[in-house]
Amino acid sequence: MAPANREEAPKRRRKKKKPQDSPPVKPPPKKKKKSYLGVITAIVGLIALSWAALPKEDTRGDINKIVPSVVGVLDQIFLGCTVYWYQMGSQNPCNQKIVDTLFNSKTSDIKVTVTTKKDEKFSATATHVNNPVILKVDSDGDVFIKVKDCDFNIDTIDTSDVNLEELAGQCHSGAAPPKPSS
Question: What pTM did the predictor assign?
Answer without folding.
Answer: 0.58
